[in-house]
Write the structure tokens for this entry.
Amino acid sequence: MKKLQFLKEDELRLGVKTSHGILDVKDAADKLEKSTFVSLQELLLEGEEGLEKINSLVHLALEGNRNELFVSEGTLTYAPAVSNPEKIICVGLNYIDHAKESNMDTPKSPVLFSKFNNALSAHLETISIPEEAKNMDYEAELVAIMGKTAKNVSEEDALSYVFGYSVGNDVSARDLQFKSGQWLLGKTPDGFAPVGPYIVTAEEVDPNNLAIECRVNGGVRQKAHTRDMIFSCAFLISYISQYITLKPGDLIYTRTPEGVILGYPEGERDWLKSGDEMVVAIESLGELKNVLK
């Protein structure tokens, strides 16, 4: 079952996608008089115990035909799949063809950079283009969401520390990104890290076997497969954990395949503009849609 966050009367709610609609976990727990975790952060901290309680609540609501506990997904105001991570870690140049199109050497070890929480945005949220930015680009990415504290973990054990996976878009302003030797300015303006709409728990996903694509205004721009990653999710988590302690809720954007605008010859770069719609789709995880303004 897919987990998500949404806003209800300005309150952040945890939801579960079902055949009957989105179960509002807080409302269901209250009306069914069941003790369970009603926020994503609590769920992340409790891990398997929390998932068992949430799944039990879902089954109880479905079996009892309690339709009043479900919300139509079409009426939701989505929130980012994770709303307050301690860290957002991004990986650069993790697909061979993307490194080639960017005219950069294939890395011998992962290239890491960060985004901040101000960059988080939700499915269907409009993303504002900074006034100085002219060269706007998209980057379809698989996002790993940590479920347990990870320090010096082995590659073999690394995926057991993952709570789940989601769809991300590393929105980038290339002119700001290369304004200096640091990428930060072009990577973490407000809204530049949309993630969602769903989290699919780790046991349901093989992160090495997912089709990924990006469409702009309906046209396919990126189309690849996560098996083409230079560094797997397990390697990335292990590598990062040797230097940085990963915490529950931390996000790892695992990098984008070829097809970004930056990779086109200079005279053929049709940068994104206000009104353009970006859709990132990842097999089994869903579609993340955002429009620029």
Notes: The chain is about 20% helix and 30% strand. The first strand starts at residue 2 and ends at 8. The first helix runs from residue 25 to 31. The helical segments are 25-31, 40-46, 48-63, 96-101, 174-177, 184-187, 233-241.
